[in-house]
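Try this one yourself first.
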């Protein structure tokens, strides 16, 4: 059931305008729902999937006002953030091209041990 909610959340966050491209998770849920002897199982799975699909939109709507209230502060630091992100992307590209991505990853984990707790 957790996978249904997570899949719906990811689809809701990225937006999925085409219902015919709903994906294998929804296809699996619909298959299980259609073949289940009890309709309640299918309803539960589809409800959890729908909840995961809708929550990111509701959260976006709830926090849009707060975001725009703090938007001026974000504009001030926007350019340095873009430059920093660009530098990180160039470093990652060079690490991939030279085959040193795993060495770079281990260096990051050794230098910033908090990253090991993220994922």
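Now uncover the answer:
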């Amino acid at each position: 059931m957790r996978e249904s909610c997570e899949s719906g959340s990811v689809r809701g966050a990225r937006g999925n305008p085409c219902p015919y491209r709903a994906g294998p998770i929804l296809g699996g849920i619909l298959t299980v729902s259609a073949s289940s002897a009890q309709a309640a199982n299918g309803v539960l799975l589809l409800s959890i999937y729908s909840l995961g699909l809708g929550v990111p939109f509701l959260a976006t709507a709830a926090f849009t006002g707060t975001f725009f209230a703090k938007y001026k502060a974000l504009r001030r630091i926007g350019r340095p953030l873009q430059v920093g992100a660009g530098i990180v992307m160039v470093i990652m590209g060079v690490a991939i091209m030279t085959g040193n991505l795993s060495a770079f990853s281990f260096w990051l984990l050794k230098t910033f041990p908090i990253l090991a707790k993220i994922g």
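Discussion: The radius of gyration is 21 Å. Residues 1-69 form one domain.
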